[in-house]
Amino acid sequence: MSADYKRGGHRPPLPLMKIILAYSGGLDTSIILAWLKQNYDAEIIAFCADIGQEEELDGLKDKALRTGAAKCIIEDLREEFARDFIFPMFQAGAIYEGQYFLGTSIARPLIAKRMVEIARAESAEAIAHGATGKGNDQVRFELAAAAPGARIKSDRTMARQKISPTISGRAEMIAFANENKIQWKRVFRNRTRWIVTFFTSATRAGCWKIRGSTRALLKCATCTN
Fold first, then answer.
1. This model's pTM is above 0.85
2. Hey, is 28 helix, strand or coil?
3. Distance in angstroms (rounded) separating the CA atoms of residues 215 and 158
4. Fold of domain 15-185
5. Which of 64, 101, 142, 171 could be stapled to 69 by a disulfide with Cβ–Cβ 3.0 to 4.6 Å?
């Protein structure tokens, strides 16, 4: 404690709150990054797990910094993803609703696990994500934060009640992005080691790839699996 504070002076400034954000550079995570920066007195650390996105990672750090992140961490988790998630999924026959193998969702527990580890290393108070309150991804991220020993708050839970009245749907997200000069793509490709999913404002279409073997799969606009 400073001598000035002991004599009744100003309190020393507290360190900024730190938030670890799951970041892909897509519309959802870019929106939540800018929104958190505007609404929290916090240092936002963007984290992207490299699980096979390849050229989609080009320019990602620069975009994160332009959108408001203090820094952007990209880590190569491809081997761990294949070894501990993709192959066990095949071995277990984990078919979603009896129709298809899990797509991008199978990577969420790995991403969340690493986010909690980074939060500890960075002495961060919270993790955040851009998943909506309608789907399953929010559960995957927030259960990792709530796991025994994690002791990390999920900032998307804290923010949901504040963000929902102003950014309640796709049209509001696009308007927020345009207003804040956030670059976004009308068609966003979400690629991992074995699946590529294309997102548009109207529909979501998945194209599953396994070593050159491809089959098309259509999904509804609200599907998050």
1. no
2. helix
3. 39
4. Rossmann fold (3.40.50)
5. 64
